[in-house]
Amino acid sequence: MGVANALEALYRHFKLLLLTLSPSHEFELESDRAGRAAELRVFSLFEGIPGVQVYQCLRIPTGQKGRREIDIVLVTERELFVIEVKNWSGIIELKADGVWSQVRRNGTIQNHRDVVEETKNRANLLKFYIEKRGVTLPPSFVQPKVFLVNPDCRPEQAILMQPEVLSADQCEHFLEQSLGRSSQSGWMKSLLTARKSESALSDSARKQLHYILSSAPTWDRLELEGGKIVVGDFQDFQGPSEDLAALKFVKRSAVSHLTMVHCRGWVRNIIGSVIGRTPNVQITVTERDYRDSNPGKPPRKQQSELPSQVCVRPDSRVLFQPVGSPVPQLYNLNNILALSLSA
């Protein structure tokens, strides 16, 4: 079992690394790519610690047709930490209005909204989301944290004095603690040390919380020919009216995955030209798993029946907005191998 868990963790790291380094992020700035790489490193830091569950890139609905991304969620025996990871460099100053002003080495200045306040808002949003899905959390169970992970980041004392903020040195100190090479203190000690008192959540509530977080929305994903992967938000299909009618059932509330099989080859193309038809793309449909929020209960029966397969023309397109792109992009169905939809 230990070997299987280790292989699974290695596979997860490999997938996350692909998403971080993939050329599909062509719309992202270099700073955004570096930020996602930093999130991956922090995620890897926590993964595998006994008694700790870690989740990455959760996108929690705001109730206003939008979503807020949470970098990392960390669940211990008695706390849930909402972690915002910043890979900023330079001097960080706290202004009177709460703005964080970043002065880079080249002298440029970039102002950011109060990161601690923003992380608190995300923590409150996640708490509301969890309770809406059926788990009531104890007071102060959800805690916001801001990780300034870049060693070249020099926040002023007014920022470091905020209990929610950890500097790069403190994050590195935690790495030593997690490997058992130093003494433990503060919130980190509560993270790594099993408490003798009763757990803040019952076993059933903890299992339900794990299901909620592991099934929370993340990014949609396009797999393209040539191994390219694009992450972002699926918008819609575009194409002939008969194709759109055949695909109208594709909603994230009902479908989790679409796999495309392309009818290629010169024989099929000749036959298609003779009969006046373009060779079709065969799409295999995977329905979303509607388990009850209590994972101990059996799956509920689906109320609607979706087709297991549909065929559409390869010149139909998918409207998809990649991470970092200001506008949605069109992708020909003929170039797509699979589409995964987040919940």
UniProtKB/TrEMBL annotation:
The protein's name in its UniProt record: NERD domain-containing protein
The chain positions of domain NERD read 34-149
* Region Disordered, annotated ranges: 289-308
InterPro entries hit by this protein: NERD (IPR011528)
Q: Name one Pfam family in it.
A: NERD
Q: Which source organism?
A: Sphagnum troendelagicum
